[in-house]
Amino acid sequence: DIEKAAFxxxxxxxxxxxxxxxxxxxxLKLGLxxxxxxxxxxxxxxxxxxxNSDPSPKERNEALKSIQEIYI
Length: 72
Known about the structure:
With 72 residues, the protein is mostly helical. Helices cover 79% and strands 0% of the residues. The protein is built from 4 helices and no strands. Helix 1 (2-16) packs antiparallel against helix 2, helix 2 packs parallel to helix 4 (57-71) and helix 3 runs antiparallel to helix 4 (57-71). The longest helix is centred in the N-terminal third of the chain and has 15 residues, at 2-16. The radius of gyration is 11 Å and the shape is flat. The model has no long low-confidence stretch (mean pLDDT 95).
């Protein structure tokens, strides 16, 4: 259930923030969920946040690829 997943990702980010090793993963998932909902601006915000939060190379590439797909 997408709504349930979104709730848990938002909860994870709210409780642990950048201290969590899953911070960027949660933001990537929330970006995808919002993209699939048609909430493009919210999705972009999550993807841009990943790029600006010292991600791993894999996370950075995924976020940049997602941003590129939205703009193209």
